Amino acid sequence: MDKQTIINILTPLGEPQDSRRWGNYLAHGFSADDAPTLVELIEDDSFVESDGDEIWVPLHAWRALSQLMPAGLEELLKVLVVLTTDDWAMDEIPIVLAAAGKAGIEPLAAFVLDDEHDELARMIAVEGLGEMGKQPALRERAVAQLAHCMKTLSEGNAAIRGMTIAQLISLKAAETVDAIREVYAAGDVDWSICGDMEDVELGLGLRSQRDTPRPNYHADMFPDGFLDGFMDDDDDLEDDEPAIPQVIRTEPKVGRNDPCPCGSGKKYKKCCMP
């Protein structure tokens, strides 16, 4: 199909009503030959300016691409950096990457290890490996690649290394605990993402409680006095939890054309949308 034909198919699909059910995009006639064009639409930021349903074309394009994977994987990896500012993409692109299955494991790991790529884009790829690990047939390979990335990442990639550990925790990959201990002993791990070693062992099911007080994971994030006036006297950052590998939402996502939550009266896409 040509680009405009695909746009004409995806536009009427409009704003998704259920983020957990993506529908059957192949019923619209998409094939592997359409994968490169779908990636073009995914990275096309001109749709953000739309006041109509065209604004959702990139989202439907990546959902359609997920059903064609591994077709389009190479092209999608090249544009991951563009998607790091999109709230929906940060949630859903790891699922799209995971749809590549076995054929996607080594390319994702190679992407994670390449320092030339954007940090957030690499973290999306780490989450893609984590999503692959949820598939029983892929778990062993995905865990092995996550552990390989954790050990092989170059110095200065503490956040990405922390994310790989967080994904191993999510997968309950207790078999990697010795390798994780070695990485912690060497340093260069962002504890605010995955916790200290005791938290890791708790997450892996290897201990039932801490032996020491939980560290203040986020102390370095705020200068002295920054939180004054924002916290009650009884708030205690010493009990602050490390970040979790996936975002758990308590409220629905804000649509691009919805009123901005900040109360400005403007549409979200014209105001606080990243």
From TrEMBL:
Organism superkingdom: Bacteria
Pfam family, one: SEC-C
InterPro entries from the UniProt entry: SEC_C_motif (IPR004027)
Protein name: SEC-C motif domain protein
The species this protein was found in: Thiothrix nivea (strain ATCC 35100 / DSM 5205 / JP2)
